[in-house]
């Protein structure tokens, strides 16, 4: 897949795999919200350890690229954020789900994370993620893969 990304160029999964990297793709609902900010910070704090393990981390949400650029800059995320405004990636990974808030149903991102090995094979997935301790759990899985 390919998607608009923060930084200077679109993200292309094929290019990351050609560099022999595994890839963690984490989907989150919205920039600058409590849980999404905590999750991004947690992945950011462990970024060096993911890199040392040969793993690239990317975050994905339906927010615009401009929103992602501000979010990334505000919290100094050392990884790229992908804009999935048309929910194509969300649908590809089946994270675009019906949700309920205060009795109102709507479609949105189910917080989920996927670990792809250097050949692009899905090695692990986490659905309905709780933020606390999640980045550490993903790093442990990367080290075991």
Care to describe what's here?
This protein has helices spanning 13-18, 34-45, 47-52, 65-75, 88-92, 134-144; strands spanning 2-3, 11-12, 22-27, 55-61, 80-83, 96-101, 104-109, 112-116, 122-126. A five-stranded mixed sheet has the order 5-4-3-8-9. Strands 1-2 form a two-stranded antiparallel sheet. It has a two-stranded antiparallel ribbon with strand order 6-7. It starts with a strand and ends with a helix. The chain contains six helices and nine strands, in the order ββαβααβαβαββββα. With 145 residues, it is an alpha/beta fold. The radius of gyration is 14 Å and the shape is globular. Helix content is 35%, strand content 30%.
